Recover the amino acids of this structure.
């Protein structure tokens, strides 16, 4: 069990550019979540996948954001036309499906800085 | 809607002293409650979880938390603070959504003084 991994760990981009982040969950975890964390705040839910199906999206996820989880394995989060307000830590978490199995295991995060 | 309030954005204790981090929740359904710890520039690590099996929950690194339904609280404690406990602590609730998504509090920074 190698845990949840995220790539890249850090990304600096200029306003208006597109960025894509990758998350590899713990193998056999059906549930995958994306959260965004700004400085001094707790993580905020962005979106949720069960296997390859995206079942919930937060209203925080504007139309510039898109997430995919092809084949129910890794997931990508893309931000188009980045804005300075997108600067944050983007966290991925995975969880097994099952009664009571609601704890989520987090990756190290991708820190995005938009200049 | 569910919510979490963590009282005190910063808590400072001396090494060896009791640690008490406060968390109150709001939930219309029986909640699942969690405490996570975050070290600088890292992801979140699960400390402990409450899933209705027992009201006193023991976690890793000597931490424990007690679920009090009448007070809608889930405070985190540790009898004796260690320097390595200095970190950001988050309380989270899950339950009203089938997705299992977590609603986090704003976090409490724990400082441990030598």
């Amino acid at each position: 069990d190698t845990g949840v991994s995220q790539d890249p760990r850090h990304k600096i981009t200029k306003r208006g550019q597109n960025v894509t982040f990758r998350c590899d969950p713990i193998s056999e975890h059906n549930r995958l979540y994306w959260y965004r964390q700004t400085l001094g705040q707790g993580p905020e839910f962005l979106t949720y996948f069960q296997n390859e199906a995206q079942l919930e999206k937060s209203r925080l996820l504007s139309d510039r954001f898109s997430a995919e989880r092809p084949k129910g394995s890794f997931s990508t989060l893309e931000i188009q036309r980045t804005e300075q307000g997108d600067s944050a830590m983007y966290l991925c978490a995975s969880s097994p499906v099952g009664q009571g199995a609601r704890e989520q295991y987090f990756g190290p995060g991708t820190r995005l800085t938009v200049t | 809607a569910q919510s979490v309030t963590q009282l005190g954005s910063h808590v400072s204790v001396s090494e060896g002293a009791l640690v008490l981090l406060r968390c109150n929740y709001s939930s219309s359904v029986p909640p699942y409650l969690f405490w996570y710890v975050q070290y600088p520039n890292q992801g979140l690590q699960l400390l402990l979880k409450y899933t209705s099996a027992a009201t006193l929950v023991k976690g890793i690194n000597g931490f424990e938390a007690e679920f009090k339904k009448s007070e809608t609280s889930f405070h985190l404690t540790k009898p004796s603070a260690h320097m390595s406990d200095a970190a950001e602590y988050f309380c989270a609730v899950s339950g009203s959504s089938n997705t299992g998504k977590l609603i986090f509090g704003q976090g409490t920074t724990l400082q441990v003084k030598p």
